[in-house]
Amino acid sequence: MGVLDGQTVVLTGAGSGIGRAVVRRYAAEGARVVAVDITERVGELSAELGEAVIPVVADVATWEGNVRAVRTALDAWGRLDVFVGNAGITDSARPLEDIPGDALPAAFGELFGVNVLAPMLGVRAALDALIASHGAVILTGSFAGSSAAGGGVLYTASKHAVEGLVRQLAYELAPDVRVNGVAPGVAPTRLRGTSALGQGMADSVLDGTKEALPLQEVPDTDAYGGVFTLLASRTDAGVMTGTMITADSGLAIRGIARPGGRVGR
């Protein structure tokens, strides 16, 4: 029996990276997951994990995409216990000075549409079902949600907004729904860029990343599964709401001279 035995989850951004790893962990812990992504790649999860996963190809920056994901969970399993808003795109660390002024509105709308509006839409679509189950919301933030230089001006602002969204929704939905978040540092995956800025897919781990981390290792995407499982667990996280769990390999305590006190000894 797993920690999430019998729970039903909608998880966005499930096609790759941390989202894909969390779907696998949730299934191993006994959960049933509607895995949502804008790419067809999400279909591979049902082939791998069987009836525990139903893939849905949808644009989570639209109301219709989120409604379809929630309806899929309710039609298949009759309930929804957890909504995980994990979908996100990057600006490839583009500073404001390097964004043409006439491109800024479209770039802002595109990036904030996925990183901020999409989790709002997802929670709203799932709200009645989550209240009925006294369920949980988990949003994926970032080290950039509390620090500068974790991305460019658009990405950093969007992840700061996610932290505010976690706190406000935790307040609004208490006592019926717990709302928490996870703020990862780095993970070996490829992120979709902002097309309004002419960006495609980009590697999230750059040369020198490992050496910059206090823990001196780039974690695999599977390393984050336990934190997401904790927050979904009614038993282990039943007293937690409005919390962002930092899982950043120590970036927040990185020193000026060197990343950690014993690094290089």
From TrEMBL:
The top EC class, named as a word, is oxidoreductase
Keyword line: Oxidoreductase
Q: Which Gene3D superfamilies match?
A: NAD(P)-binding Rossmann-like Domain
Provide the E.C. number(s) assigned to this enzyme. 1.3.1.56
Matches recorded under SUPFAM superfamilies = NAD(P)-binding Rossmann-fold domains (SSF51735)
> What's one GO MF term for it?
oxidoreductase activity, acting on NAD(P)H, oxygen as acceptor
Identify the InterPro entries for this entry. NAD(P)-bd_dom_sf (IPR036291), Sc_DH/Rdtase_CS (IPR020904), SDR_fam (IPR002347)
The entry assigns this protein to a family as follows: Belongs to the short-chain dehydrogenases/reductases (SDR) family.
Put simply, this protein is called Cis-2,3-dihydrobiphenyl-2,3-diol dehydrogenase
Origin organism is: Streptomyces smaragdinus
**Gene that produces this protein:** bphB
